[in-house]
Every structure is written in structure tokens, then in C-alpha cells.
Amino acid sequence: WEYYHFVFQAPKCSTDGDLVQYMPLIDQDKIGILEELDWDYWVRFTRSSIVMLCLQLEQLSRTQRRMVKCVLLVDLKDCAMDNILCSTFDSANDRDVSKVLEEVAAEVISEVFIVNAPWTITKLFNTFRVFIPSKFSAKIRFINGDGLDDPDFLDRVGGEEQLHQLYSTRVGLVSRAKRSIAPSHELDDLPSVREQQQVAKLKERFAEAFTA
């Protein structure tokens, strides 16, 4: 797909038999989806994907005679802030998709692994974790780098060979797109002074939420 790509089901399950999904955010062109696609099409596509996931998990559960869940792998490799935050897209997606996804995800997703996350994103997540439903936020785990040296993580995503295969599917749809909106700077693993200042301002702005 020209504006969105993810691996719905990896060839191998986790060592426990759970389904593995791979979502590289560099392949989620939010601006392209807004500008080029009919929004109803996007909503139908994402909602249908949720239904298909539930059906596939049900089939695997019958085969394995246990409750099979989904391990979601989110890859932030090469992402700029534009890929993470796009207020117009995020607001509409939250209204039409995310609410449904949150309800289902709390039941069918066992873990969410975030890999290749720059410092800024990790820090912002820790800052705003209080706003994420606890039932879902407890499932989220940040992995150091690409996770290839983490044996426990490798077991959960189907092994080292499969992880290499998943990473090789990254297309870079966002980086290939030419938009009228100027791209922001890419996020570094180490924080710049400006990024630290931004995080500090956000903490100050929402101080009441953390002391309540």
C-alpha cells in the first residue's frame, strides 16, 4: 500500500504460540492518508483489520486449545516527530478508530514492544503514561535498540531470524513521500538541549495531572 504498511501476522508465532504483528511507524504516512485517501476507507480498513485479528486469534486458540493473544511490535526506526504526532490525523483517528482499538486491544493484545525508540519518545511516554488506560499501558515495554541482543524479547517475537525478516520489510513510505509540509528534524537516540527543554515544559504544563 502506498501510504500504510504493516505485517498483519508474522510467519512464526512466539515461543508461547502467540501471534506476532509488526508495525513500522516509518511506513504510516499520516499526511498521505489524510490528503490522498477517503477517510471512510481508512476507517473501514483499520476496523476490518481489528475484526480479522480477532478471528485469526480465535482460530489459533481452537488449534492450540488455549487463549492465544497478539504480540505487537512497534518500530520507531528513522522516525521524525511528524510520524509520531499529527494532530489532525490523530484527532480523527482517535474518534473513529482508537476507541474501538483500545477496547479490543486490552483483551487480545498480550504485549506491546517498542523498538528503536529515540530518547525523546521514551521520555514523553513516561511523562504521559498517566493518561493511558492502565489496562493497556501495563502491556507496553520499551526495548533497548533493536532488541537483537535480548533473548527474552527474541522468544516473544519468533526468534532472531524472524526479527531480521520483519525489519527487512520496512519500506520507508514517509521518507519517500514529498509533502507540502516541511519535515521536522529526525529524533536522535541522545537528547538535544531543545528536546530536554520541550519535555520539561510539558511536565510543567501538566504538573497537576501528576500530583493529583
UniProtKB/TrEMBL annotation:
<protein>
    <recommendedName>
        <fullName>CRAL-TRIO domain-containing protein</fullName>
    </recommendedName>
</protein>
<dbReference type="Pfam" id="PF00650">
    <property type="entry name" value="CRAL_TRIO"/>
</dbReference>
<dbReference type="InterPro" id="IPR036865">
    <property type="entry name" value="CRAL-TRIO_dom_sf"/>
</dbReference>
<feature type="domain" description="CRAL-TRIO">
    <location>
        <begin position="1"/>
        <end position="175"/>
    </location>
</feature>
<dbReference type="InterPro" id="IPR001251">
    <property type="entry name" value="CRAL-TRIO_dom"/>
</dbReference>
